[in-house]
Design goal:
Layout (H helix, E strand, L loop, with lengths): L6 E5 L2 E6 L6 E9 L3 E11 L25 H18 L5 H7 L15 E8 L5 E6 L6 E3 L10 H14 L14 E8 L6 E7 L7 H8 L5 E8 L11 E7 L3 E8 L6 E10 L9 H15 L6 E5 L5 H7 L4 E6 L2 H13 L5 E5 L2 H11 L4 H4 L3 E4 L8 H10 L3 E6 L2 H13 L2 E9 L9 E8 L4
Parallel strand pairs: 2-4, 9-10, 14-15, 14-17, 15-16, 17-18
Antiparallel strand pairs: 1-2, 3-4, 5-6, 5-8, 6-7, 8-9, 10-11, 12-13, 18-20, 19-20
Helix pairs in contact: 1-11, 3-4, 8-10
The structure holds S-adenosyl-L-homocysteine (SAH).
Amino acid sequence: MGVGGEGIGKYEGMTFFIKDALIGDTIKARATKLKKNYGYARVEKIIIPSPYRVVPECPLHRQCGGCQIQALSYEEQLAFKKQKVKNNLMRIGGFAEEEVDAVMLPAVGMEYPYRYRNKAQFPVGYDKEGNLVMGFYAARSHQIIPVKDCLLGVKENEPILAAVMQWMSDYQIPAYDENTGKGVVRHILIRYGFTTKEIMVCLIINANKLLQKEALVEALRQIEGMTSISINSNLEKTNVILGKETQCIWGMPYITDYIHLRNTQDFSLTDTAIAYHISPQSFYQVNPVQTEKLYSTALEFAQLTGKESVWDLYCGIGTISLFLSQKARQVYGVEIVPQAIEDAKNNARLNGITNAQFFAGKAEEVLPEFYEKSAGDEEMRHPDVIVVDPPRKGCDEQCLSTMLAMKPERIVYVSCDSATLARDLRILVDGGYELKKVQAFDQFAHTTHVETVVLLSKGMVD
Ligand code: SAH
């Protein structure tokens, strides 16, 4: 299977990439596109099903672009993800197979891999017959597949979508049309606090002002747990979902959620929990159960005793930083979005944490600045641990070279893209670090995405 979950098969020596075919299937396929040495094909008939094939829970799994590998047994999904990380470390990172096998831990999966997402963004539009639809995009397209109850999301989404749909038809509020740029309602963003059961709804609109918003509020506030209702204006012709301006129209401008520290032996819950305020624009991990396992492991990898100074780069609203601050002497967080830094500072206050400091800016600029200029402050220039959790594109080279120059004892790399992770690990290892532990976490069951946590230690070379 390829990185996108497509099956890779052979016909008369030629390689074909086939959506919805699984490893171990024998299939009859129809070629859809031929290149010189390879081609693409579609499943016509499954002749001998793979032993790993299961009946997917969701009837829309083939049409909807949200899931790619729901027909693969969950155990095999985990094996596939571990293998994906391993392949990238070897192919892109240039690590030897023995080297990778020696440090790779088993992938951490979920007990129940459904209903795990705390956030959903439903596009709103019209189908070919002109009916109002809300749901998810089909794979590689902007055709909206109507989805009432996505099995990856919470049950609470369904009545919210129904209420917005009713309100739109009652007041003839038009959906946004991507082609003409006309119409109003673009997306419905819903967030759910798993521990607090608080709900946030944010309607993304192609307007500065929403008509009939009182009626919308009236309908939504009836839903149990409703805590925050807002509108976000996005007037641009763009695929980016949120615009810059968000206005709270009812309740709080955020919801609160807790992340518990887990015991990393069996991932049982501990009494330590940190509260976070989450606003519509903030980045917040979408799978809270797995996030607790992920952050607890990152914290364990950091091996803190209470004396350390730690940088947390790409810190978002301070989620990992505040975890680290419990066990470190001082934590410094860096994040590019100023609003997220404001949230991080508030979250520190909310939890009575005083040993975390936050800086707004690019990691690749803030870090060198402190390294070069704050010559007096050795703690900042030579931290004991650096934690990074970059977006998919990975770390900037300038950021990596400054990290190497700072010579921390340990680097903990949290990654949502194992290809850029492999690229960056090569640079860190060539710079004198040793790969100690690599563990994949399944944050996104039934999709091909995989999250990874890596521990690097300063080697003998200085
Ligand atoms: N550690 C946080 C956020 C991780 S997501 C958490 O676990 O919740 C990655 C974050 O990196 C996002 O918040 C994004 O805004 C931020 N980011 C993207 N590019 C950046 C850069 N060049 N420098 C610093 N932060 C950046």
